[in-house]
């Protein structure tokens, strides 16, 4: 592994939920999975997807969505950016790459 360290147990716990896996899948290609008219394509690619769009796509309430995103963030799988009253999420591609490498070489 390179210089990224991660808590394996926390990471795999975060991945053990279908809704959280969906969020990671959708965030891999946000312009395909989210409404680009509600949020610009450039904004999605730069800062991430607004939590309200993730909530709407999940079809869950704000509290549950926030808990799922918080779990992913604690594990390092997503990064949050706050702009005004809105929070945007995007994948931490470097950590995900390291995780794939870890699984391929260590497990």
UniProtKB/TrEMBL annotation:
Residues 1-107 form the HTH arsR-type domain. InterPro entries: ArsR-like_HTH, HTH_ArsR_DNA-bd_dom, HTH_MetalResp_TranReg, WH-like_DNA-bd_sf, WH_DNA-bd_sf. It holds the Pfam family HTH_5. Keywords: DNA-binding, Transcription, Transcription regulation. Gene3D superfamilies: Winged helix-like DNA-binding domain superfamily/Winged helix DNA-binding domain (1.10.10.10). SMART domains: HTH_ARSR. PROSITE patterns: HTH_ARSR_2. This is Helix-turn-helix transcriptional regulator. It comes from Paenibacillus gallinarum. The lineage of its organism: Bacteria, Bacillati, Bacillota, Bacilli, Bacillales.
């Amino acid at each position: 592994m390179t210089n990224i360290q991660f808590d394996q147990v926390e990471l795999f716990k975060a991945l053990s939920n279908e809704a959280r896996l969906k969020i990671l899948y959708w965030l891999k290609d946000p312009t395909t999975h989210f409404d680009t008219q509600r949020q610009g394509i450039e904004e999605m690619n730069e800062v991430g997807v607004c939590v309200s769009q993730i909530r709407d796509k999940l079809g869950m309430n704000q509290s549950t969505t926030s808990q799922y995103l918080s779990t992913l963030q604690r594990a390092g799988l997503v990064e949050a950016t706050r702009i005004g009253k809105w929070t945007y999420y995007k994948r931490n591609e470097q950590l995900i790459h390291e995780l794939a490498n870890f699984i391929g070489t260590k497990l």
